[in-house]
Amino acid sequence: MNISLLRASKEYKPIFDNLMQFYIYDFSEYIELDVEENGLFKPYQYLEEYWGEENNRFPYIVKRNNKYVGFVLVQLIESEQRTHFSIAEFFIMRKYRRNGVGKAIAFEIFNLHKGQWEVYQKETNKPAQMFWSKVIGEYTKGMFVERYEDGKRIQDFES
Predict the structure, then answer these.
(1) Which long-range contacts does 14-17 make (Cβ < 8 Å, 24+ apart)?
(2) Of residues 141, 134, 128, the one with CA closest to residue 31
(3) What per-residue confidence (pLDDT) applies to 13?
(4) How far apart are CA 124 and CA 29, in angstroms?
(5) How many CB atoms neighbour CB 106 within 10 A?
(6) Residue 4 burial (CB < 10 Å; 0-12/13-18/19+)?
(7) What is the pLDDT of residues 51-81, one digit of tens each?
(8) Are 68 and 62 in contact (CB under 8 A)?
(9) How many CA within 13 A on the CB side of residue 34?
């Protein structure tokens, strides 16, 4: 299985825009979203910020055998209380799920960004909760804390 994770330059933004339509479609099962008059979902409003001046957002494209199969958007969140990484969005196309692609990419992301992590899922998104609990459990060998807060299931750990 030839999987690659590429740090995405601004030239990849049109690819993100296109893949984001599939991601939002999948996610619309868990949040109230509909297509607009043009038949597309509204563009992801924070995407442009991933190529801004601040160095706290990290866009990645996922490829398998040189085909686009998904993306990951990582943030470094800094506050007075703590600094941690978070996965803002994580998408692997359905066709490539359940065969190790998501797990391999998650492990690579955690290894690229060493430090404290907080990964969360909507409480209604049971498949994502199962995926992240299993992957983070495996990655940390069970050394993570899980909590519920504001309609989200959150895993805290250190990579």
Answers:
(1) 15/61, 15/68, 16/44, 16/47, 16/59, 16/61, 16/71, 17/43, 17/44, 17/47
(2) 128
(3) 93
(4) 9
(5) 21
(6) middle
(7) 986 779 999 999 999 999 999 999 999 988 8
(8) yes
(9) 2
